[in-house]
């Protein structure tokens, strides 16, 4: 059973600029936690801090009682899969299938010897899940933005990690792709993983979040279940837009209708 992911009193900087201040949050297994905030709020930095990729200036990050920054690198890679918002890989000569399979290297002890038995099959399985199986033999450098985004998610899913951290996972996707990705994130959560997704889209948060962490100017403004956090007054203050609520089944969805 996966343990919860916790940030305690985290401060983070880029150079001399402090971009996260006193962030304390928890993401529990079984739930999709959405980090919601406008451009520049610190979402990417927070996800990278949680992933063990951006050392906090202060504070700590734990999976259960294990300090993420004290884990050996390969063990951390086995535990945490991080999906950046954009693919900036130097290995653009690789095929999509090779790239996705390479995500499984941390699962195999010893030197890197190329794909191990089962890795390519797992890559193909994850490419099918993101509806990108036709891309398997294409060069990574020749994909559209949306195709790259699907490939990045398949890459993370192939790691089979306890913790899945995804940064703006649907920014380049068509409507079916968006619905598919959040469906997959819920499937992963239901399998007992910790799933954290960052977005600036309050409607997506209303539709898909089990928990919301609302971030503004590097600080957490509120966190909890969507029904407690996604209130027009709070959202209007953070996003500086006028918000109306609409109902969809048992969900209350915030809809931005104008700028303020
Ligand atoms: N490499 C960097 N060097 C200096 N400042 C940075 C760097 N990366 C981010 N920042 C600054 O840190 C702050 C938080 O950035 P971050 O990318 O974490 O925000 P975000 O909420 O993910 O934004 P967006 O929604 O626009 O992607 C911003 O003010 C940004 O200008």
From TrEMBL:
Coiled-coil ranges from the UniProt annotation: none
Keyword Cell membrane among record annotations: no
One Pfam family of this chain: ABC_tran
Superkingdom in the source lineage: Archaea
Originating species: Pyrodictium delaneyi
InterPro entries to which the protein is assigned, alphabetical: AAA+_ATPase, ABC_transporter-like_ATP-bd, P-loop_NTPase
Every ABC transporter domain range: 5-242
Lineage, uppermost ranks: Archaea, Thermoproteota, Thermoprotei, Desulfurococcales, Pyrodictiaceae
Keywords, in A-Z order: ATP-binding, Nucleotide-binding, Translocase, Transport
UniProt-recorded name of the protein: ABC-type cobalamin/Fe3+-siderophores transport systems, ATPase components
GO molecular function annotation: ATP binding; ATP hydrolysis activity
Record keyword Zinc present: no
